[in-house]
């Protein structure tokens, strides 16, 4: 019996004949690999999802997504990969940081906002964990409402979560927890769910135990 959702060789040929202008030879292999991971319950990488979703977009083709799965991403600063690693359900758009990946080390909220404005966005994203604020020392003048508004425009079907950053290290030695809480209260006032616990008063770079706690909380909400 044919496994549900699996494309046969004959069907491949028919689809290629109809859409040969934009389907390359590796498309079906990429799709099959992603499909196998989805039905086995494993978390696929952001880069694999990007490969599949990008096929046909220049021809206004519909994006491909398993309706039984959810696409949950982490965006922000250098703590983002550790948040993604601590979660079973959230992942990076790409392990390579940059504007198109919506995360990069040493960046502030203003950089993230500019990157989101340039991003093509996607209706397929279900949840977004935002990990930003640390590098700007939790500046209450950050355009948090602007970031939230832009994310809702580019990812209209996504629920937003804010991961509270870290302090007490480097140039953040004099930052208080009260300042951090005040900063993320602005996210909350803009309709974003704030995640507890925060990364906290630690040097954050590395797979610290706190990321498992944060990941577990994020996973419980999606």
Offer a few descriptive terms:
Rossmann fold; alpha/beta; 5-stranded parallel sheet; 222 residues; 2 domains
Question: Can you summarize this structure?
Answer:
The protein has 222 residues and is α/β, with parallel strands linked by helices.
Question: Describe it for me?
Answer:
The protein has 222 residues and is of the alpha/beta class. It folds into 2 domains: 9-59, no CATH class; 72-220, SGNH hydrolase (Rossmann fold, 3-Layer(aba) Sandwich). The chain has 8 helices and 5 strands, in the order H-H-H-E-H-E-H-E-H-E-H-E-H. Strands 2-1-3-4-5 form a 5-stranded parallel beta sheet, with helices on both faces. Strand 4 (159-163), helix 7 (177-189) and strand 5 (193-195) form a beta-alpha-beta unit. Helix 2 (27-40) crosses helix 3. The chain starts with 8 loop residues before the first helix and ends with a helix.
């Amino acid at each position: 019996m044919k496994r549900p959702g699996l494309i046969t060789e004959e069907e491949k040929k028919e689809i290629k004949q109809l859409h040969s202008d934009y389907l390359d030879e590796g498309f079906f292999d990429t799709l099959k690999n992603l499909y196998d991971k989805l039905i086995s319950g494993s978390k696929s990488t952001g880069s694999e999802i990007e490969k599949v979703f990008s096929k046909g977009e220049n021809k206004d083709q519909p994006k491909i997504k398993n309706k039984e799965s959810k696409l949950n991403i982490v965006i922000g600063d250098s703590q983002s990969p550790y948040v993604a690693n601590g979660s079973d359900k959230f992942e990076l758009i790409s392990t390579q940081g940059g504007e198109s990946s919506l995360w990069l080390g040493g960046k502030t909220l203003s950089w993230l906002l500019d990157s989101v404005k340039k991003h093509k966005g996607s209706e397929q994203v279900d949840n977004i964990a935002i990990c930003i604020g640390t590098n700007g020392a939790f500046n209450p003048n950050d355009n948090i409402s602007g970031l939230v508004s832009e994310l809702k425009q580019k990812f209209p079907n996504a629920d937003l979560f804010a991961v509270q950053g870290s302090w007490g290290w480097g140039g953040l030695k004099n930052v208080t927890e009260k300042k951090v809480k005040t900063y993320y209260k602005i996210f909350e006032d803009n309709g974003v769910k704030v995640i507890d616990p925060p990364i906290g008063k630690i040097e954050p770079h590395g797979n610290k135990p706190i990321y498992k706690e944060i990941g577990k909380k994020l996973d419980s909400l999606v």
